[in-house]
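As the next step, I selected for study one protein, both as residues and as discrete backbone shape codes, as given directly below:
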Amino acid sequence: MTPFKSFILFLCFYLSTIAFQVNAETAEIGTPAAPTIAASAYILQDFHTGKVFAESNADTQLAPASLTKIMTVYVAFKEINKGTLHLTDLSTISARARDASGSRMFLEINQQVTIEDLLKGIIIQSGNDASIALAEHIAAQESTFADMMNQHAARLGMKNTHFQNSDGLPIENHYTTARDLAILTTALIKEFPDYYPWFSQQEFTFNKITQHNRNLLLGRDESVDGVKTGHTDDAGYCLVASSLREGMRLISVVMGTKSSKARADENQKLLNYGFRFFESHRLYEGKKPLKEARLWKGADSTIELGLAEDLYATIPRRHYDELKATIVVDKTITAPVKEGDKFGSVNVTFKGEVVSQKDLIALKSVETGNIFRRTYDSIMMMMEKSDEQ
């Protein structure tokens, strides 16, 4: 072999070695596995998209203890929104409510207490007496209120949940799951933004007795703004937490840990993992025009299409540029059109996989046009169809 050929072979080998090293250094590092969580069940998911980042036994039916009260206040908030209940309404405390065991608001028999105070007594102090009093005020008796809780659970898609009481004290056939609690918490935050800040309140005083919120994360992590603790011997120590950082909200549910410190620590692990390795982006704003489409036989010749609500996508961090959005519009849209009618979709993909999809809807109603408009458009539609053939 000549010296020249030897040099060329050496150069090729050297360049291939450099290329291998560069490729190795720049190769994409996959998202690491979630941390080990010491709990009977848990789940971590994105609030806006529902993307699950970590879970274990998330569909196992477990005793929820005072996590039950998330549904108790959800039912009350729904009644307030309907106008059948008001924060200033007065509830007369029954002997049954006053005698509730476990954590209490320290209500007194025949005392009249506002609904707002009862709600704060449930959310912040985890009062079993307040839960029973609220249930009795809304539904006359707690068993009827439990029926209301189960109806809302079914409507929300909580497939593995059944409630028997409003406070979560141990009772047969009373259970839920980590996944169902995440579904409930998402609905509560989304539907009741005006009341949700109560879940971040660290103390509440009633009857000159000040009690502190048992959610240790509220004083530890300023991004955490809820949600609810729970504990019984059967359920162990439980905590539903929610955290908001830079526009991204995560919900974590941990059930069946060994102490109040452990439930906070395990939730913190999950939240830190989610924020460290994932990001959520609002790609389109709801109720805003995304596309103007041709409208046939209408009072208007065009119609604005958009989304019913904001569209978010959740992906591994530092991969935003790999998101692709496609707007698909129905070929022929004919009047009359009602606001909210579906005429296509917005599809968001990440590395070829659909990560978010929402219907494209009419943003306003448009009535049928006059006879001249309908006749003209009918002719034009036939001509276009003929051209296509």
User: Anything to note?
Assistant: Residues 210 and 287 are 44 Å apart (CA to CA). The chain has two domains: 41-279, 285-388. The first strand starts at residue 41 and ends at 46.
